[in-house]
Amino acid sequence: MHGPGVMRASWAPAAAPTVDSRIVHARSAKATIGLAERAERASLPAHAGQVFAAHAGAHTGQVAEVRALQEEVTKLRAEAAHARSAKAAMGQVEHAERAPLPVHAGQAAEVRALQEEIAKLKVEAQRDASEREELTRSLELLKAELRRALDENRALTDALEERKLLLAEATAREQAAARENALDSARAFFKSMLASSEGDVGGKRQCGAPAGFPGRRRQNALTASAQPAR
Questions:
Q1: Which of 11, 13, 38, 155 is the most exposed place for a label (fewest CB within 10 A)?
Q2: What is the domain count for the chain?
Q3: Is the separation of the CB atoms in 215 and 201 below 8 Å?
Q4: Which residues form a coiled coil (predicted)?
């Protein structure tokens, strides 16, 4: 204030870079306008009313800015209210979804039953796979044992055939040797008989006995005994 009954207000340049500064500036302008209106209603001196009127006319643009800010704030409040209502509606929907309805409970039980059945099937499949692997290993072992047994059997068969062949050859040799021995014995016996018969024939001739008949009969007997049996 300067002088009695005169009110003056000094205004700083408007700082509009941020919304907060604009709101503060609008609030100060609104307070100034309110002071002017109260001064006019209180019947202050004419020059004071003129001063406030001049300040009010000078800040008409600021009043428009204040109104624009008020409209923007109103819009923001409406959007906030709409957002709150939408959030409340979403909360109700989520609560309704979380609420255990009978149909949903039945479906959940069916899903749990299916999951349990799937888990059982998986366990059975794993058990079958392990049993299949074990059977495969056992089958491979049996195949290896069978191949080894077949190889051993083949080797034994070959050895038996070779032994049979050797035995047959040995038997043939023994039989040939026995026949040869028998022939040699027969030849030796025949020679001895011939020698003895010739000695007897010579003695009988010396005694004057007939030499034809007894000597021939003994020779025939020796010949028959010397032949191998068939």
A1: 13
A2: 2
A3: yes
A4: 66-163
Which amino acid, one-letter code, is at 135? L
What's residue 1's pLDDT?
Answer: 41
Quick one: how far is CA 165 from the chain centroid?
Answer: 59
* Rounded distance between C-alpha atoms, residue 110 and residue 140, angstroms: 44
Residues 137, 182 within the same domain:
yes
Boundary (domain end) residue, out of 69, 98, 127: 98
Question: How high is the pLDDT of residue 209?
Answer: 46
Q: Are residues 28 and 79 in the same domain?
A: yes
Yes or no: say if 55 and 36 are a contact pair by the CB < 8 Å rule.
Answer: yes
CA atoms within 13 A on the CB side of 85: 6
Distance CA 103, CA 108 (A): 9
Distance CA 173, CA 165 (A): 12
Asked whether residue 163 falls in the same domain as residue 126, the answer is: yes
Check residue 142 and give its pLDDT. 95
In a domain, 11, yes or no: no
Quote the pLDDT of residue 83.
77
One-letter amino acid at 12 equals: A
Contact 8, 1 (CB under 8 A): yes
Secondary structure tally for the chain: helices H, strands E: 5, 0
